[in-house]
From TrEMBL:
EC number: 3.5.1.99
Annotated family: Belongs to the amidase family.
One Pfam family per UniProt: Amidase
A GO term, aspect molecular function: fatty acid amide hydrolase activity
Catalytic activity, as annotated: (15Z)-tetracosenamide + H2O = (15Z)-tetracosenoate + NH4(+); 1-O-methyl-(5Z,8Z,11Z,14Z)-eicosatetraenoate + H2O = methanol + (5Z,8Z,11Z,14Z)-eicosatetraenoate + H(+); N-docosanoyl-taurine + H2O = docosanoate + taurine; N-octadecanoyl ethanolamine + H2O = octadecanoate + ethanolamine
Binding site for substrate: 126, 152, 173-176
Protein name (database record): Fatty-acid amide hydrolase 1
Keyword Phosphoprotein belongs to the record: yes
SUPFAM superfamilies (UniProt xref): Amidase signature (AS) enzymes
Amidase domain ranges (all copies): 68-499
Alphabetically ordered keywords of this record: Hydrolase, Lipid degradation, Lipid metabolism, Phosphoprotein
A single BP term in Gene Ontology: fatty acid catabolic process
Length: 514
């Protein structure tokens, strides 16, 4: 108990301001830590955000006040290995296997003086954007308990959105930082691959190379993300993991930006009206106050989704992922998503052939036929990697032709009803595209779903008026008041430029477009 501490004031501080007050002695480390622990306890009683006991904060007592993150509390996605604690990815068979040492990113944070004090919940296997597993239960969205906080860093999104952490570290292989940030109304950054070390992060899909796996910060505001990145990109990280590019954080460039925008592609799932209606005005608003925007639709998105993203993830027919479930319980949220992998291989191609003439299921048939009908040979996998390289080259070429620096585009939003992400895994293509390309991408909340949006949702049919479109409508129903976010993107290694653009959007979001 801290009767003399103004908990509300502490919880309202950004990471930069909190760290400054801790270094200057204006706030005691104990008061700050206990305030956040108490807030965590109040949130956990109904939301299942956390994954066990508090981390051993006492080990950091000797840190000098000169450290940039001196005694700043930090929450961690469950996947990050912390010495003496489990990293289970929600799998029962991974319980009681405590890490022998800290992951590199935790070692760096400790050197910076931060206090990792709690781990947060994840979906089982981390390959889903709901947040449920048999070990720690179903995490709910604190803005609406019928909705998911997203995943895979869903516990982080919910905890930060609920005020229980000033800074969290999540992971992202297809949107796992950005989707929870979008669903919970916070900010999050997926950095360029190899900008932050991933040594000491457990994974259920070792060997997957088609989508870049990264770690990145999540916080209430963009400035906290930038402050975290500037602290992390230091010599300690470069020494601990020589595979990380030794590029310190660069101060933002002050030149005018050239920007692009797109809303959606008719080759994938159509976004709901709450996204389209609120994002469209930004293409008129930004040129008036910030930068010139040109239309830049991603090339060949149908090909990118089915031939590059899904084929890359499923190159082994799901064998590596399913191996994690042998002798384990499978969470109900995963059963629809993983069911095709469990169909006998010979039956998959027959089933997809039968489904093709069924007008409401053409994309389901395409997915089964193009992704799951067989395992890829080594030669086919090499050819697939070559196709990804060509697509990335062409994407960047089109980007350069328009002299773009940054891109404003949608993220999956608003939050889905619990249980629906596994039925709509293809909808993650709005974020997975930038794991394929390995571009830095971040999320900024800009508005909320209105009652008018909810009424207009009733007429949503999508481009195909098929099972996926109707399922999407069901998933976002009942979302009045939930956050609507945008995604900001830059070229590889331009993470600082991405953050600058995110900050401009964040500021402009307070001046609502007409």
């Amino acid at each position: 108990q801290n009767p003399d501490v103004d908990a509300r004031s502490i919880l309202s501080l950004s990471l930069r301001n909190l760290s400054q007050k801790l270094r200057e002695g204006a706030l005691s480390p104990e008061a700050v830590l206990y305030t956040y622990m108490e807030k965590n306890s109040s949130l956990e009683t109904t939301s299942f955000l956390l994954t066990g006991k508090w981390l051993p904060c006492v080990t950091l007592d000797s840190r000098a006040p000169a450290c940039i993150l001196y005694r700043a509390p930090l929450s961690l996605v469950e996947l990050l290995e912390y010495r003496g604690h489990d990293s289970t990815a929600g799998l029962v068979q991974w319980l009681d296997q405590p890490a022998a040492e800290d992951s590199v990113i935790i070692q760096v944070f400790k050197k910076l003086g931060a206090i990792p004090f709690v781990k947060t919940n994840v979906p089982q296997s981390m390959m889903n954007y709901d947040c449920s597993n048999p070990t720690y239960g179903q995490t709910v969205n604190l803005l609406n308990p019928k909705k998911t906080p997203g995943g895979s860093s869903g516990g982080e999104g919910a905890l930060i959105g609920g005020g229980g952490s000033v800074l969290g570290i999540g992971t992202d292989i297809g949107g796992s930082i950005r989707i929870p940030s979008s669903f919970c109304g916070i900010c999050g950054l997926k950095p360029t691959g190899n900008r932050i070390s991933v040594v000491g992060l457990a994974t259920c899909t070792p060997g997957l190379k088609s989508l870049t796996f990264t770690a990145g910060p999540m916080a209430k505001d963009v400035d906290s993300l930038a402050f975290c990145m500037k602290a992390l990109l230091c010599q300690d990280m470069f020494d601990l993991d020589p595979r990380v590019s030794p590029i310190p954080f660069k101060d933002e460039v002050c030149r005018p930006l050239g920007g692009g925008w797109y809303i959606e592609s008719k080759q994938r799932i159509q976004l709901t009206v709450s996204v389209i209606g609120h994002l469209l005005p930004w293409k008129e608003f930004l040129p008036c106050v910030s930068m010139q925007l040109v239309h830049f639709p991603p090339p060949r998105m149908g090909y990118c989704l089915f031939e590059l993203i899904l084929k890359g993830v499923s190159a082994d027919g799901g064998l590596t992922l399913l191996r994690n479930f042998k002798g384990d319980f499978m969470d109900p949220s995963l059963k629809t998503q993983l069911f095709p992998y469990m169909i006998p291989r010979a039956l998959r191609s027959i089933l997809s052939f039968i489904l093709k003439p069924v007008t409401r299921w053409p994309r389901l048939a395409e997915g089964l036929y193009g992704v799951l009908c067989k395992n890829r040979s080594v030669g086919e996998l090499w050819e697939h990697h070559h196709e990804v390289e060509i697509y990335c080259k062409n994407f960047i070429s089109e980007w350069k032709k328009l002299n773009l620096d940054v891109l404003l585009c949608p993220c999956l939003t608003p939050a889905f009803t619990i249980g629906y992400p596994g039925k709509l895994i293809a909808a993650a293509s709005y974020t997975a595209l930038y794991n394929l390309l390995d571009f830095p991408a971040g999320i900024v909340p800009v508005t909320t779903v209105t009652q008018r949006d909810e009424e207009e949702l009733k007429g949503h049919r999508g481009y195909f008026n098929d099972m996926l479109d109707s399922t999407l409508r069901e998933a976002v129903e009942g979302g009045v008041g939930l956050p609507v976010s945008v995604q900001c993107v830059a070229l590889p290694w331009q993470d600082e430029l991405c953050l600058r653009f995110m900050r401009e959007v964040e500021v402009l979001a307070t001046q609502k477009p007409a």
